[in-house]
Write a structure and sequence with these properties.
This protein has 658 residues and is mainly alpha-helical. Among the domains are: 123 residues, no CATH class; 237 residues, Serine Threonine Protein Phosphatase 5, Tetratricopeptide repeat (Alpha Horseshoe). It is 66% helix and 0% strand. It contains 32 helices and no strands. The longest helix has 31 residues.
């Protein structure tokens, strides 16, 4: 671009952070209330059947489309309003149905209601170029153009349209429509201003706009299509190149990169620019006008080439409930990463908005958008959370948990509590949500409320494995937060009465007893071992508990008799396991009497467990194999890693897929 050229320079950006497009935010979470209806209205015969099908399963998109198709066929405006209004509370990105809704209102000549539908639709999906064009066409056909306000309203709507959707790569049709409308108004300078904007915007038909602009320049005198300021600058430029001196007024050279300020006298003499044009060659002026914008076009072409492959990979830019192909999802990820790294904040926001239309049902893109926005605007990130959770992902737990954490992080504790409570009521039974509610109350110091939430979960899930899971969580909370070992022990013992074959309950009870002073709590610890070993747990699990008991007594026990007894009982369990394996290896042809003899031997020791000086073979092995005569602890600890009492719970088994 020529240095100092004033015309195509955009206005300096204002000191503000670009926000996501405005959308109507729900003030209540997860509660979708349809508008009030007149009970006196009579609906078509089959309307109730289609309506009930959609209401009973709101996530069934096909049921909704059948309902909307039915009300269109019946041409019943009140049924249509009820159906469309309820549909858009769940699927606001379906721009095609906004158009159908508006067209139906217009068929009944409800002009005001038609415009309201358009405005609601554009508020929900401001990037929809097709909806903007449909709305502008509606205004052009219904407004009285003899009134001065009509043209002003249409022009304002065009400006709103290009501000909201003009940066979209596929917005060419909207820009062309704006140019054609200005041609009808005869405002050539306005057409030039539009081209100056679109020539610096990467769009699919960027070359087409450049060719059209060259035609525009060739068909009209320069003084008719460019501003007075640009004419003055061009005159100064030409004069400086030819060495001519201004005779009628002083012309000062503007510093490089700055516009030449107009003096009051010059403005008055210039008028519409005819005074200035004088001896200037129109062809030379056209050449300079194009030369100034040639560099804009070249820069824009380079930006288009960077994005072209990404845009080619977008096969479905509109919303649909059907899953996207992996290649398209990968393309969106790569495109967003590119724009974040190389593009402007405005273009990044627009691309994210495009992405969450096509990928509205994918959590990962909403979360990526929010993480990007959080570093720029807390209010913007909050508005995206609200759109995602209240409209598009009302039953997805992860993004709701992130929303609650976001609000808590920024000091909105009550809002975080409300989000978790509302989702817990809407999608009950998710352990991750209940535990997040518990942890929130614990962080706030409300241990009583945290305990109450866990007790409610235990009661609500009584008879199911998840009840024991909550019992373990409650016992740990009581032990760690309230330092009440007796109360925590009672919680787990009560849980064992209802779920006596749950190995995790026994393991957590032992872990809790281990946390106390071993000298004072040996009796409770041994009782926990005995309770596990006399339960109905599988043999393999009992062997683990038995081995752990031997290790405990070896390390902390106060009685050698208890230790030797535990060795003996552990050996018996190992012999039972060995004999069971032999039976499985020998097959079903084992004689019944042989099985009985083996069982008796396992139960009483017999010839299978040979004693050595009053010590079981397992213990004897420890002594005899050791060079120093000390205990060989490796034998006892070789399987210690198999004991899983400290392993974390697999939460996924309690998370219902939504």
């Amino acid at each position: 671009m020529e240095t100092g050229a004033p015309a195509p320079q955009p206005e300096p950006p204002k000191e503000e952070v670009l926000q996501p497009p405005a959308s109507e935010l729900m003030t209540t979470h997860m509660v979708i209330n349809p508008p009030m209806e007149d009970p006196s209205i009579t609906y078509p015969l089959d309307f109730e059947r289609y309506w009930r099908a959609a209401q009973e399963n709101p996530l069934d998109f096909t049921a909704w489309t059948e309902l909307l198709q039915y009300v269109e066929q019946e041409n019943h405006i009140y049924a249509a309003r009820k159906a469309f209004d309820s549909f858009f509370l769940r699927y606001p990105y379906c721009y095609g149905y906004w158009k159908k809704y508006a067209d139906m209102e217009r068929r009944f000549d409800f002009i005001k209601e038609t415009e309201e539908v358009f405005q609601r639709g554009l508020q929900s999906i401001p990037l929809s170029m097709d909806l903007w064009i449909h709305y502008i066409s509606f205004l052009q056909s219904t407004l009285d153009m003899n009134l001065p306000d009509s043209a002003q309203k249409i022009c304002g709507t065009f400006e709103s349209a290009v501000a909201a959707a003009g940066v979209d790569f596929r917005s060419d049709k909207l820009w062309e429509m704006y140019v054609e409308w200005q041609k009808e108004q005869g405002d050539l300078r306005a057409i030039t201003a539009i081209y100056d904007r679109v020539l610096s915007t990467p769009t699919q038909l960027y070359n087409h706009h450049w060719e059209k602009f060259k035609e525009h320049v060739a068909m009209h005198y320069p003084k008719d299509i460019i501003s007075v300021e640009e004419l003055l600058w061009l005159q100064n430029k030409m004069a400086s190149e030819t060495g001519a001196k201004a005779t009628e007024m002083e012309v000062e050279e503007a510093p490089p990169g700055e516009d030449m300020p107009l003096k009051t006298e010059a403005r008055q003499e210039a008028g519409d620019g005819s005074h200035i044009l004088g001896p200037m060659d129109p062809d030379k002026l056209r050449e300079m006008v194009l030369s100034i914008r040639q560099q804009l076009y070249s820069q824009n072409e380079a930006e288009v080439s960077k994005r072209w492959n990404f845009e080619e990979g977008i096969k479905r830019p509109y919303f649909h409930v059907k899953p996207l192909e992996r290649a398209q999802l990968r393309n969106w990820r790569d495109y967003l990463d590119f724009e974040i790294a190389n593009g402007s904040h405005e273009r990044t926001i627009i691309l994210f908005e495009r992405c969450v239309i096509a990928c509205a049902l994918y959590e990962e893109f909403w979360i990526k958008y929010i993480r990007y926005l959080e570093s720029h605007s807390i209010a913007g990130a909050r508005s995206v959370f609200q759109r995602a959770c209240c409209y598009h992902l009302p039953r997805k737990p992860n993004i709701h948990l992130l929303w609650a954490a976001f609000e808590e992080k920024h000091g909105e504790v009550e809002e975080a509590r409300r989000i978790l409570r509302s989702f817990d009521e809407c999608v009950p039974g998710l352990a991750m949500v209940r535990l997040r509610r518990v942890s929130l109350e614990r962080r706030l110091g409300n241990t009583e409320m945290a305990e109450t939430l866990l007790m409610e979960a235990i009661r609500e899930n009584e008879g199911m494995p998840v009840s024991s899971f909550y019992s373990v969580k409650l016992a740990r909370l009581v032990l760690k937060a309230q330092k009440n070992l007796a109360k925590a022990r009672k919680i787990l013992l009560d849980a064992l009465e209802k779920d006596p074959d749950n190995a995790k309950l026994y393991a957590n009870l032992l872990e809790m007893e281990f946390s106390a002073d071993v000298r004072q709590n040996e009796g409770n610890t041994m009782s926990s071992f005995d309770r596990a070993l006399t339960s109905g747990l599988p043999l393999e699990t009992k062997i683990i508990f038995s081995q752990r008991r031997v290790e405990f007594l070896e390390d902390f026990g106060s009685s050698i008799n208890s230790l030797l007894t535990s060795y003996d009982e552990h050996q018996k369990l190992l012999n039972q396991q060995m004999l069971r394996k032999r039976l499985l290896e020998n097959g079903a042809e084992e004689a019944d009497d042989k099985r009985l003899r083996l069982d008796d031997a396992a139960a009483g020791g017999g010839n299978v467990a040979v004693a050595t000086a009053g010590i079981t073979p397992l213990m004897a092995t420890d002594v005899t194999n050791s060079g120093s005569g000390a205990y060989n602890y490796n034998t006892w600890y070789q399987n210690y890693s198999n004991y899983g009492y400290q392993n974390t719970w697999n939460y996924n088994q309690y998370y219902q897929q939504t």
